[in-house]
Amino acid sequence: MLFLVCLRLPKIVLVDLVFHYGGKWIREPKLLYEGKLVYKWEGYDSDLLSFIDITNEYINLLGCVGVQQLIVSVLSGKYYEIEGDEGIRTLLSFVNDKFYVINLFVVEDCELDVDVENITKMLETVVVIDDISTDCTFDGSENDSDTSSDNSDYNSEELEVLAQARRRVSATTIAFYFKEKLQANPKYKIKEMRVDMKTAFNIKAHFEKCKRAKRMILEDMEGSFCDDYKKLIGYANALKESNPGTDVVLKVSRNPLDEKRKFLRMYICFEAFKNGFKNGLRPFIDLDGTFLKGKAKGQLLCAIGQDSMNHFHLIVWAIVDKEYKASWV
């Protein structure tokens, strides 16, 4: 006897992801992202969606310095923060026939973070409001007249305090609280910061948020690497003035929409190195390169010479976005 078993395959849910970038955040009077550049993933299988894939797309393809916060806007126009794959799963739980186009935004590492609620708290906020506005009699039945009288015990200020108490604290607030402690002890660890938050305020802060807060404090103390990039033109001019004959080539790209400049590559060859190669080294040049593993990424390319004692001497070096023909020539 032959039995046929029919298996019902799970329905594939497709979403359209819209990546917004190249703009700026307007915080007052209402939080709003102002930008015109968009990039789309259309008909993407939601089961394959992950937090790391989205952040890598922003960094590797769209040219973001780094992703400090991943933000999504819902149908009401309100913004929520997504943290990790847990946030992605929460976001996908809201996908339906009306909400399948997901608008994504980021706050880069060189920007101030935006104060928005975490998307995992989206449903909890609704439950809290229902609890405040509902009252029951002793026998368990609902009484509309009692509800209105009990709500008078909560004025608008108290409701605001209750709502604020349930919101997740921002990285800016954490940085403000721990600034003096981190200045006194730069080796103060993120793990210790979370323990102190739990002990002092009974708040379980996310590890990545504490990490951003610590980075904000250190950048305020030592300066951000973005500020150093802004000094490159002055650095190049100083090299030419202090070392006559030195070759310095600095290449940047400019966005025609917002006039923002992005560092591409830089080439440096000191006059002393050129004369040393001409007068004392063998007529041999070796080319080499290595990847930069820091926050800014890129590659370091160099040309090396050799003297009669087989000692190596640096001739020129360059910082480039990637290794290809244009970066070598």
Automatic annotation (TrEMBL):
Q: Name one Pfam family in it.
A: PB1-like
Which UniProt keywords are listed? Signal
Give every PB1-like domain span: 15-106
- Which interval of the chain is the signal sequence? 1-15
Q: Which InterPro entries match?
A: PB1-like_dom_pln
Q: From what organism does this protein derive? A: Solanum verrucosum
Q: What's this protein's name?
A: PB1-like domain-containing protein
